[in-house]
Amino acid sequence: MKSLGSWLLIFFMAMFWVFRIVVTLTVQGGADSFGGFIVINNVFEIAMLFVSLLCFVLIVRRMLIGGIIYLAGYGLYFGSYLISTAIPSLTSGETMDVIVLENVIIAVIALILGLCSILDIAIERTKAKNFTDKKTDWFYDNQKYERQLDERADKNQYKL
């Protein structure tokens, strides 16, 4: 993790994870929601919180499987919510209330975080394979210039 963008992505994923912990604890404490944010499935939410910890470690170690698991887990959890609530209300022309809209925004953010984690790892892998350093490549890539110098040096015969 050499770039600032990668660290900021992990930091934002951790903030989202803490937010989901607060929402889950509030709902488990007996409230219906935390400021309108609901828990769709209690058991799956708690499982995803623990799986997210494993995914954070894998993403920091730049393993693509961590990003895939993160996206797949949140895709199953929040994607089902989007399909069951947001899409039918958008296609029927009904207006969504504030609570549904808040949860749709959170679901979209979760899916965007998963996609960004996979893209970040993939982009960094391609940079590592096709690495070019403009500071030193001029020295190592000038074999034609080195051959010209070698031929010129062979013609300089000094007499003693």
Find the count of extended strands (DSSP E, 2+ residues): 0
Distance between the termini: 59 Å
Q: What are the secondary-structure elements, in order, as H or E? A: HHHHHH
How many helices in DSSP terms? 6
- Please state roughly what percent of the residues sit in beta strands, choosing from under 5%, 5-15%, 15-25%, 25-35%, 35-45% or over 45%: under 5%
Counting structural domains, the number is 1
Radius of gyration: 26 Å
The backbone outline, from C-alpha atoms, is elongated
Helix content: over 70%
Outline the low-pLDDT stretches.
none
The average pLDDT is: 84
How does the helix and strand content classify structurally? mainly alpha
| Biggest sheet features | none
What tags apply to this protein structure?
mainly alpha; 6 helices
